User: What shape does this take?
Amino acid sequence: MKIGVCIKQVPDTATKIGVKEDHSGILEDNTKYIVSPYDEYALEEALRTKEKIGNSEVIVLSVGQKRTAEALRNALAMGCDKAIHINTEGQGFLDSHAIAKLLATKIQSESIVLVFTGRHAVDDDNCQVSQMLAEFLKCPHVTMVSKFALEGSKAKVERDVEGGAKEIWEVELPAVFAATKGLNEPRYASLKGIMQAKSKSLSDIPVTQTFAQDLTPKVLWSNYQMPAERKVGKIFKDEPAKAVKEVVRLLREEAKVI
Assistant: This one.
């Protein structure tokens, strides 16, 4: 069985982001990049599935600039067998629709039947690629997956829903599953894995060489801005009854929320 994992390289959640002077995007110089945390759960589940069923291959895929190869090498060091980098260096902005189309093209050409993704990427937080990918592949999709078990040609999964409840789904392969926190505990790349990764296949494919023809964005992002600085809070030291009256007055006259 061929198992696919789609990952995205994103700015480190602890890094300080800057915005370009023309507000066309973020400053990438001196920005540290990592694999999106939810994608790490997808990677781990793919590797665990391979270890359980044997006789399978884990292929990790990513769409992104030249630097994305670093994230793919890390996935190879974790235990993936093969990496495919759809290189968008110099391509310009690609939205979720275009990225899903590119991933679907390579997944189909590789005959992958089981696909894992993260529930969303922590940079743009769109939560779209996984669902669009399943649509292009014309296969079932389950998101917010917190438990996964493969039973022959079917997968039995649990997904988190509002209120702390769980849904149980039984899905026929091929299918796409979007992982969430709690599915597993992602492993670290070992020294042995890092050394072995150097001899594994990492295909670098220019975006222009894929079969996807129309990559015109359906959505464009513009006017990037840093969040406004939070106003200094007010502390009320009066007696409770007097403080409550003052809070109510300010909510009505200044905040205008009541």
Notes: The chain is about 30% helix and 25% strand. The two ends are 60 Å apart (CA to CA). Residues 110 and 249 are 65 Å apart (CA to CA).
